[in-house]
Write a structure and sequence with these properties.
Elements lengths: L4 E6 L6 E6 L2 E7 L6 H15 L7 E7 L5 H18 L2 E5 L1 H6 L8 E7 L6 E10 L2 E12 H8 L3 E4 L12 E3 L9 H13 L18 H16 L2
Parallel strand pairs: 1-4, 4-5, 6-9, 9-10
Antiparallel strand pairs: 1-2, 2-3, 6-7, 7-8
Helix pairs in contact: 1-2
Length: 236
């Protein structure tokens, strides 16, 4: 139903946020109060925004989530929340790669821009996608891949601007423009707009198989795998 409410969740960055809409009208956005208590703040923020707009859980028909890469903890909480809402309320689900979310912040007067996300312990390597404008929208034309700055510059072509909150140090060519890192913050209203477009095309996700998109394996998984290798080695 076009008059159902829809919710967007962005938890890939340190500051989580949500957006609430009804049909194709964006009603409100809200930022989580704290950066370190996403597990507590997310549902409380959703509840408050719903109350502020006279909406109840039964009014929700759709939820979209920024799927990553990004904060391991934030993404896990976001996906778990989406699954819970989908199973409890039978809502539709759409998912948006965080690269696409950040790309919505790009200046319209640039031709080709590489969006670069932090690949955590990779230090000098980034999770990258190169975007170009198509039909007044930013569309990915290369990637995503994990690359060094030199690899990105070599393969992306020119003209080229780069956007990232934490670009690695190094000798970036003079003709590569570094955009304002403040533009690299993903926003829930961008997730909402992209999610609505996906829903209109019926490109829905299966909540049963929904998983966060990570640039690398979480620390806990890597520690567990090392322990398993150690156990195997001890019994050889």
């Amino acid at each position: 139903c076009d008059e159902q409410h829809n919710l967007a969740i962005e938890m890939s960055s340190r500051s989580g946020s949500i957006a609430l809409g009804r049909g194709d009208e964006l009603l409100a956005t809200a930022t989580l109060a704290t950066r370190t208590r996403h597990n507590v703040e997310l549902m409380a923020t959703i509840d408050q925004v719903f109350r502020d707009h006279g909406a109840a859980p039964r009014d929700l028909g759709e939820v979209c989530v920024s799927i990553g890469p990004g904060s391991f903890t934030g993404l896990r909480i976001a996906v778990a929340t989406v699954k819970m809402l989908a199973f409890a309320l039978d809502v539709r689900v759409t998912v948006v790669p965080t690269l696409d979310v950040v790309a919505q912040n790009l200046p319209a007067d640039r031709d080709r821009v590489a969006v670069c996300l932090n690949a955590k312990r990779e230090h000098q390597r980034m999770y990258c996608g190169v975007f170009r404008q198509q039909d007044d929208n930013w569309k990915i034309c290369f990637g995503p891949e994990i690359l060094t700055a030199a690899q990105l510059v070599q393969r992306a072509g020119r003209p080229l601007a780069v956007l990232g909150a934490h670009l690695p140090d190094g000798d970036w060519p003079d003709d590569v423009e570094k955009l304002d890192p403040a533009l690299a913050a993903p926003r829930a209203d961008a997730v909402w707009r992209l999610g609505r477009a996906l829903s209109a095309r019926r490109q829905l996700a299966d909540p049963w198989t929904l998983l966060p998109l990570y640039a690398r394996r979480p620390d806990a998984e890597e520690v567990w795998q090392r322990k398993q290798r150690d156990i195997v080695d001890q019994h050889k």
